[in-house]
């Protein structure tokens, strides 16, 4: 079994336990960790004011950054970076992809600095960056600090049942943007049945996106166990969603869109009806519902050629006509 880094929640528990004079053995037993892991964590991350979970998290992230920054860029790695930059990939996307493929773990700042060095040498890699003329800001720390998402829980903490698609009720959420950023859809996808829900919203503001999600989920809220979001600010009110629907909320790692692969793919299917070249500002709720209904009525190979409607009904007590009727009026 591979080692898994301590989460912020585990560090919080360690801080609480130390203050209550709990033994290392008991802490390790409660968290399901080796005692050596707990001992090393406390020794490495205790400051002048004792062990504090947020400080411990920050120190760990800083060490991770320094380690990745120090990674040597071999000629082969440089060729890969240049290849992907020429494909208009961002430093974040390149770093994420190289890590995903098991090539190397790099901080995106390392890649950006390589691009700047190329520019100083007369190279043109920088021309493939989206914001060539803007100052690039280093981004350290957690996604909480970058995106203003309070109490963000990483996808690593999501229960195994959600990861393996063994149950109904684990959803992925995203937004779909129209041409020239005119018009927004909220999109929701159930991982096991492939059922899709969607609705247009007036803007990408967190308040409007939150209200739309709660409205979409309300008739099916007893079939909502978890929701996994990307790291957009429009999902900053995820705690309200979780409270209203009595579910847990999680976030994919930044720049790891493949961790919500189903939602990304389903957005691609919806583009058949609302292509990227189309502004979405004038699209009506009925138009979105009709397109979603068509998607939910298509047989899917991954479902043994059942439709998402059929797969969802098979796993729940809801009637097919009720589900189809609901989907058409959302």
Description of the structure:
This protein is an alpha/beta fold. It folds into 3 domains: 8-68; 71-128; 155-329, 2-Layer Sandwich (Nucleotidyltransferase, domain 5), CATH 3.30.420. Helices cover 46% and strands 10% of the residues. It is built from 15 helices and 7 strands. The chain has helices at residues 8-19, 24-31, 35-45, 53-69, 75-86, 91-100, 108-120, 143-147, 160-163, 206-217, 238-245, 261-270, 285-296, 308-315, 320-329, and strands at 46-47, 50-51, 170-177, 184-190, 196-201, 226-229, 248-251. The strands form 2 sheets. Strands 5-4-3-6-7 form a 5-stranded mixed beta sheet, sandwiched between helices. It has a two-stranded antiparallel ribbon with strand order 1-2. Strand 6 (226-229), helix 11 (238-245) and strand 7 (248-251) form a beta-alpha-beta unit. Helix 3 (35-45) crosses helix 4 (53-69) and helix 13 runs antiparallel to helix 15 (320-329). The longest helix has 17 residues, at 53-69. The two termini are 44 Å apart.
* Element-level helix/strand string: HHHEEHHHHHHEEEHEHEHHHH
Bulk shape: globular
Put simply, the count of helices is 15
By CATH, the topology of the largest domain is Nucleotidyltransferase, domain 5
Radius of gyration, in Å, reads 22 Å
Q: Sketch the major β-sheet.
A: 5 strands, mixed
Q: Helix/strand-derived class?
A: alpha/beta
pLDDT below 50 for ≥5 consecutive residues: which ranges?
133-146
What is the number of domains? Answer: 3
Query: Could you give the count of β-strands?
Result: 7
State the separation between the terminal residues, measured CA to CA: 44 Å
Helical content (DSSP H or I, runs of 4+): 40-55%
Average the pLDDT over all residues and give the rounded result: 84
CATH architecture of the largest domain: 2-Layer Sandwich
Task: Classify the beta-strand content into a percent band.
Answer: 5-15%
- Name of the CATH class of the largest domain: Alpha Beta
Function: Required for the transposition of the insertion element.
Pfam family, one: HTH_38
Protein name: Mobile element protein
Keywords: DNA recombination, DNA-binding, Transposition
């Amino acid at each position: 079994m591979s080692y898994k880094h301590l989460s912020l929640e585990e560090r919080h528990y360690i801080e609480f336990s130390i203050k209550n004079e709990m033994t290392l053995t008991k802490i390790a037993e409660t968290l399901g960790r080796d005692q050596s892991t707990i001992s090393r964590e406390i020794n490495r991350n205790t400051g002048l004011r004792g062990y504090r979970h947020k400080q411990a998290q920050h120190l760990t992230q800083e060490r991770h950054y320094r380690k990745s920054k120090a990674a040597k860029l071999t000629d082969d790695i440089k060729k890969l970076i240049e290849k992907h930059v020429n494909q208009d990939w961002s430093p974040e996307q390149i770093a994420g992809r190289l890590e995903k493929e098991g090539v190397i773990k790099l901080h995106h700042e390392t890649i950006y600095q390589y691009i700047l060095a190329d520019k100083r040498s007369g190279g043109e890699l920088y021309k493939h960056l989206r914001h060539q003329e803007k100052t690039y800001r280093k981004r350290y720390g957690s996604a909480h600090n970058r995106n203003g998402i309070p109490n963000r829980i990483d996808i690593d903490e999501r229960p195994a049942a959600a990861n393996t698609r063994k149950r109904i009720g684990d959803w992925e959420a995203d937004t779909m943007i129209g041409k020239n950023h005119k018009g927004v859809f909220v999109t929701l996808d159930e991982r096991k049945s492939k059922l899709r829900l969607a609705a247009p919203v007036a803007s990408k503001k967190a308040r409007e996106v939150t209200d739309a999600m709660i409205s979409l989920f309300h008739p099916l809220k007893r079939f909502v166990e978890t929701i996994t979001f990307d790291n957009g600010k429009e999902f900053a009110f995820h705690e309200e969603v979780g409270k209203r629907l009595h579910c847990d909320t999680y976030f994919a790692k930044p720049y790891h869109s493949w961790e919500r692969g189903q939602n990304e793919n389903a957005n691609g299917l919806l583009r058949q009806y609302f292509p990227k070249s189309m502004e979405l500002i004038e699209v009506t709720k009925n138009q979105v519902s009709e397109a979603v209904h068509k998607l939910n009525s298509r047989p899917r190979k991954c479902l043994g050629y059942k439709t998402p409607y059929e797969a969802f009904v098979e796993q729940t007590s809801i009637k097919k006509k009720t589900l189809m009727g609901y989907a058409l009026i959302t």
